[in-house]
Specification:
alpha+beta; 2 domains; single chain; 10 strands
Length: 174
Amino acid sequence: MHGQARVIRYRGLLALIVGAILFFSTAPASAEDSVTGTLTVGGKSYKLSHVSARRQPSMTDKTKTVLVVLLTDNAVPKNVLDDRYRLELTDLARDGRLHGLSVTLGLDKKPAGSGFTYAKEFGGAIVNREDQHFFAPAVFTDARAEGKLSGNGSFGDQKWEYTATFKAAVSTLK
């Protein structure tokens, strides 16, 4: 009888351990994602509250990998985040439903290639250059990116600038 009670106890303990492992391994990484900062476009400020980071081939050199960090004031639908080119971001910005920017970082932790500023004030989106962004990394691994991004520029007579501190799990473009 004692042997059977011991087996039941071990099975219960095993079920508890397996349940805990499954719970913590499937918990969304985004629970740790955060951003604080603002984007100012044409004198209007928008609070940046959503972040996404993904590794992908460079648009200009397919042999290189880059990290694209997307900072926005509103949530971006998953289908748009998963899209290779994220063209719908321009439509969302044009409609005034989203303001934000994407910054391309090389694996050397420096801005690389072009990014975009998304705002209704720009008719949707404008391209910006790597020299318009600054990145101070805190963590930069295959799994996480954290640090401070800032930058500024202009489009016609409209100026834009931003400062943001972010933490994000890194996904990979499929």
